[in-house]
């Protein structure tokens, strides 16, 4: 620095003589001594006059810039030695302490606070003193200038220049010596203060809540009278609030101001900003937690208004930043503080900085809440109807932040990890799928994100065999076929059917309106582009309506499969009905008809119609009983009359294939059936009845000595037990022969009676032949004690998986058998064929009766059946004939 | 032990007692219904001609009405007359 300044004075150097050099040297030495004395004098300003005279004499020699440079340099050295080093020494104790630990213990925190105050005080004092010295220099220079030129110079410029230089020196000295833990200390300090403030505010906030509401109402009324009045009230209210926190905020403000003075403006701001954000994050986490039953967004917003914004307002006001220039009154009150609605433009302009802060804080709150909710979206959807407030919150957050893709990604990975696993039951997956659809429909009515989220679920469900069955059960059963679940799945789907009905009606009205040009115009104006995230490869039209049933059917691929499965289930249900009550089935069918079209539900409608017809026919036949038929007298002897017989008469062509098993039912009943058929023929000539004797339900009563038990069973069970009336012990072969069923079937079905303790089984010499004996309750009272208490109990037999209707797989197998010969022939000719080639060949050649209309998957499962029957072989995806 | 039957709910299917399986006109099953009908049974009855050939009533009526002046049985070409 000295070198540089001497270079600039080169011209003068030539003209100076020895005497003046000596004089300059002397005054320079004097100046240096005075400077040192002044700076290290600790308030001792006695050297002032000497200092000034030296400065004057140096200035006379045009060495003013040298003087300034030297003085500033001395200032820097002194500050580095006295100010900065001492300042940092205060914090040495915390060098190795982690921030987390600091904030954990309040004692430590208090320590930090004290140390920080003390350090800042010290360094400020030092700085003030140095500034005083600097001012002295400025005055000295000034007085010299005044003395030589007589006219007034603009002294301010030089002063400002020097002071800004000094300020720069201070902050650069501090910055270069900054220990790494200082920002953390600041952060910790602000965090502690803010928490303190927030607890104070929270307490107050609750206290004031009631009066707050009242104020609001009052204000509304007063608004109409005069804005001025409202302002006064509000100001007083606000001021009171501020006074209470004044001290705290003032302390913080002082720290911030001191830090600013030291050149730590951005660091201080970072520190309190991060403290505020941290506090806000904590608050959001606290409020949101794991409770999805209530909306938290509003209370978070209120809290932002109540605590951080109040704090910032006070802080900015203290620092003198927030005074809005065009309106003095706004400086006294934060319009955003607790009455966002009372923000009247023109009357009250909140300072720009505060608004920026508010936006920042709200965005941060939205984002935090959104992240929190997205991470828990799976759980939220699990208890969907209850958790709709959380979904609402999430929707608002997403509208603000626009981070939908985050939701999709995180939810899909949650699904894969938690739902789409072998351990989850198909019912649960479907239930979750439905809830997902409903929940996401709220968030995004256009269904764009739903499409992305639903895809993995659909793909997975397609791979499950029982998907169709579960869907149909959900559609038709009130209980949803989910015994361990909450059981509202079915309800919700049925309800969905209902909702759909309304939609269809609305759609109809819409169509009518669409003819209207005006309405067309309105529709066109209402058009909104798809969200950016929409997949352009998928048309926007099919995305418009999020239709749960459509999406469910989408899993299966075609509605035909669904309808077929439904038909089988309906048949099963109808055949096991002993009354003709089919109201709920009719309702379901009507709803399904609306959705799937009348023609695809035609067969189901005929089935229901059969039941209605059967009821009518049945009562017609009963009415003919009064005219005794020729075998009427016989009936009297056996003690059974036509009264006990009801029949379901079906149009078998329209029902799914029915399991027909031969069965010899007991003679008297057989005669009854014959009589019934005869009467039917008489009424409905020329139609005839063909009995499906193995189907139906029988309610019977077993009368033991002193004990009566009632059962509702299948006809086969009835036939079995009735054989034991005359003969109490049967071998399985004889019994099977007399009932007319295969022995293995008998052995299987007789278990029902054994499990009820009515029959007992004992093995004889021939291992294939069992002996069944009627258990007399007198002989084995222990076994029967189970039933002893409730003689009149009605036991519904469980079917043990015996179905009266062939399952869809069985049907498919039967249908595919036709093609077995074709396939065998093809393989004989071609040697080996791949799956899709067999499929295509069948499609090409089997056009006539019955046309080949099976899917590749169906063919594959049939072929693998043939493989397991050892008719075919498969190697590398090619099928061969088994040699 | 005695077994008393309280209620026997049986299942049966009905059939038109025709010799053939399908209607010679519409090729649909007799136990089904003609293409114009939705419900089988009473709503879509069979009718026998004097020649003992059976058809869905609706099918043969359409046939008879389209044949003027005299209709013949589509199966055996004899003069069509409803069996009394």
From TrEMBL, chain A:
Tell me the Gene Ontology biological-process terms attached to this UniProt entry: cell division; megagametogenesis; metaphase/anaphase transition of mitotic cell cycle; protein K11-linked ubiquitination; ubiquitin-dependent protein catabolic process
Record's family? Belongs to the cullin family.
Q: Does the keyword Acetylation apply?
A: no
Task: Please give the InterPro entries that the UniProt record associates with this protein.
Answer: ANAPC2 (IPR044554), ANAPC2_C (IPR014786), Cullin-like_AB (IPR059120), Cullin_homology (IPR016158), Cullin_homology_sf (IPR036317), TPR_ANAPC2 (IPR057975), WH-like_DNA-bd_sf (IPR036388), WH_DNA-bd_sf (IPR036390)
One Pfam match, given by its short name, reads ANAPC2
Protein name, UniProt field? Anaphase-promoting complex subunit 2
The UniProt entry, under SMART domains, shows:
APC2, CULLIN
The Cullin family profile domain sits at 551-754
Instruction: Tell me which UniProt keywords the record has, alphabetically.
Output: Cell cycle, Cell division, Mitosis, Ubl conjugation pathway
* UniProt entry tagged with the keyword Cell cycle: yes
Looking at the UniProt record for this protein, which Gene Ontology cellular component terms does it annotate, in alphabetical order? anaphase-promoting complex; spindle
GO MF terms listed in the record are:
ubiquitin protein ligase binding
From TrEMBL, chain B:
Q: Name one Pfam family in it.
A: zf-ANAPC11
What keywords does the record list, in alphabetical order?
Answer: Cell cycle, Cell division, Metal-binding, Mitosis, Ubl conjugation pathway, Zinc, Zinc-finger
Q: Which residues form the RING-type domain?
A: 34-77
Q: Which Gene3D superfamilies match?
A: Zinc/RING finger domain, C3HC4 (zinc finger)
- SUPFAM superfamilies xrefs: RING/U-box
Q: What is this protein called?
A: Anaphase-promoting complex subunit 11
Organism classification: Eukaryota, Viridiplantae, Streptophyta, Embryophyta, Tracheophyta
């Amino acid at each position: 620095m000295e070198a540089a300044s001497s270079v600039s004075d080169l011209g003068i150097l030539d003209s100076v003589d020895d005497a003046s050099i000596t004089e300059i040297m002397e005054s320079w030495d004097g100046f240096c001594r005075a400077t040192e004395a002044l700076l290290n004098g600790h308030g001792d300003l006695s050297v002032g006059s000497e200092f000034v005279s030296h400065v004057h004499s140096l200035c006379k020699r045009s060495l003013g810039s040298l003087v300034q440079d030297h003085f500033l340099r001395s200032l820097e050295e002194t500050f580095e030695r006295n100010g900065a080093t001492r300042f940092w020494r205060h914090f040495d104790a915390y060098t190795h302490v982690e921030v987390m630990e600091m904030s954990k213990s309040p004692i430590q925190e208090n320590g930090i606070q004290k140390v920080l105050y003390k350090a800042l005080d010290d360094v400020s004092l030092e700085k003030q003193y140095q500034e005083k010295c600097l001012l002295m220099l400025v005055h000295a220079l000034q007085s010299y200038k005044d003395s030589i030129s007589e006219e007034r110079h603009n002294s301010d410029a030089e002063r400002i220049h020097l002071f800004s230089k000094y300020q720069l020196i201070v902050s650069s000295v501090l910055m270069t010596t900054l220990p790494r833990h200082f920002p953390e200390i600041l952060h910790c300090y602000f965090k502690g203060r803010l928490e303190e403030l927030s607890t104070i505010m929270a307490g107050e906030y609750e206290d004031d809540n009631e009066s707050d509401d009242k104020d609001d109402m009052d204000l509304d009324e007063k608004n109409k009278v005069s804005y001025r009045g409202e302002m006064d009230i509000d100001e007083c209210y606000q001021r009171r609030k501020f006074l209470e926190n004044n001290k705290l905020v003032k302390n913080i403000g002082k720290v911030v101001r001191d830090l600013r003075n030291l050149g730590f403006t951005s660091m201080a701001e970072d520190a309190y900003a991060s403290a505020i954000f941290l506090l806000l994050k904590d608050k959001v986490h606290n409020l949101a937690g794991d409770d999805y039953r209530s909306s938290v967004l509003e209370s978070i917003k209120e809290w932002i208004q109540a605590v951080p914004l109040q704090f910032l307002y006070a802080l900015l006001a203290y620092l003198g930043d927030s005074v809005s220039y065009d309106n003095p009154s706004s400086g006294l009150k934060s319009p955003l503080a607790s009455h966002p609605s009372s923000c009247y433009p023109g009357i009250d302009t909140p300072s720009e900085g505060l608004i920026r802060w508010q936006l920042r804080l709200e965005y941060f709150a939205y984002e935090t809440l959104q992240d929190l909710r997205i991470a828990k979206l799976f759980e939220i959807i699990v208890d969907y109807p209850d958790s709709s407030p959380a979904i609402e919150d999430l929707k608002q957050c997403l509208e603000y932040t626009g981070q939908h893709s985050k939701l999709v990604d995180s939810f899909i990975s949650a699904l894969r990890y938690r739902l789409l696993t072998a351990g989850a039951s198909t019912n649960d997956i479907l239930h979750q799928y439905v809830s997902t659809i409903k929940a996401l429909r709220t968030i995004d009515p256009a269904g764009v994100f739903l499409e992305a989220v639903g895809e993995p679920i659909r793909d997975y469900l397609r791979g499950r065999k029982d998907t169709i069955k579960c869907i149909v059960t959900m559609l038709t059963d009130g209980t949803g076929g989910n015994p361990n679940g909450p059981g509202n799945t079915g309800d919700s789907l049925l309800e969905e059917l209902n909702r759909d009905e309304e939609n269809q009606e609305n759609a109809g009205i819409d169509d009518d309106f669409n003819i209207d040009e005006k309405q067309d115009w309105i529709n066109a104006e209402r058009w909104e582009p798809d969200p950016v995230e929409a997949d352009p490869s998928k048309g926007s039209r099919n995305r418009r309506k999020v239709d749960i049933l459509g999406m469910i059917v989408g899993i299966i691929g075609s509605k035909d499969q669904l309808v077929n499965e439904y038909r089988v289930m309906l048949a099963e249900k109808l055949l096991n009905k002993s009354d003709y009550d089919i109201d709920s089935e009719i309702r379901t069918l009507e709803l399904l008809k609306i959705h799937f079209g009348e023609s695809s539900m035609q067969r189901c409608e005929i089935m229901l119609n059969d039941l209605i017809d059967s009821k009518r026919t049945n009562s017609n036949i009963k009415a003919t009983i009064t005219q005794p038929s020729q075998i009427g007298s016989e009936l009297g002897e056996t003690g059974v009359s036509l009264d006990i017989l009801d029949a379901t008469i079906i149009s078998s062509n329209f029902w799914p294939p029915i399991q027909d098993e031969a069965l010899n039912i007991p003679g008297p009943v057989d005669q009854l059936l014959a009589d019934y058929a005869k009467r039917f023929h008489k009424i409905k000539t020329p139609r005839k009845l063909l009995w499906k004797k193995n189907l139906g339900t029988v309610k019977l009563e077993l009368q033991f000595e002193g004990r009566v038990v009632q059962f509702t069973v299948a006809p086969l069970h009835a036939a079995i037990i009735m054989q034991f009336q005359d003969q109490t012990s049967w071998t399985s072969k004889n019994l099977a022969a007399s009932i007319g069923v295969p022995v293995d079937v008998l052995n299987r079905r007789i278990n029902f009676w054994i499990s009820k303790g009515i029959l007992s089984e004992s093995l004889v010499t021939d291992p294939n032949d069992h002996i069944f004996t009627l258990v007399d309750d007198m002989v084995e009272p222990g076994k029967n004690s189970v039933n002893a208490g409730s003689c009149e109990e009605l036991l519904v037999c469980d079917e043990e998986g015996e179905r009266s209707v062939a399952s869809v797989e069985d049907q498919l197998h039967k249908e595919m058998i036709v093609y077995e010969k074709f396939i065998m022939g093809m393989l004989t000719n071609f040697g080996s064929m791949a799956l899709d080639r067999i499929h295509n060949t069948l499609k090409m050649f089997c056009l006539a009766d019955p046309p080949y209309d099976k899917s590749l998957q169906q063919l594959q499962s049939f072929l693998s059946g043939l493989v397991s029957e050892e008719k075919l072989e498969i190697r590398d995806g090619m099928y061969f004939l088994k040699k | 032990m005695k077994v008393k039957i309280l209620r026997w709910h049986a299942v049966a299917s009905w059939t038109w007692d025709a010799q053939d399986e399908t209607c010679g006109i519409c090729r649909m099953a007799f136990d089904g219904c003609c293409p114009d009908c939705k419900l089988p049974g009473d709503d879509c009855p069979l009718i026998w001609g004097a020649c003992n050939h059976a058809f869905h009533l609706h099918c043969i009526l359409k046939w008879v009405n389209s044949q003027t002046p005299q209709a013949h049985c589509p199966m055996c070409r004899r003069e069509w007359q409803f069996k009394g």
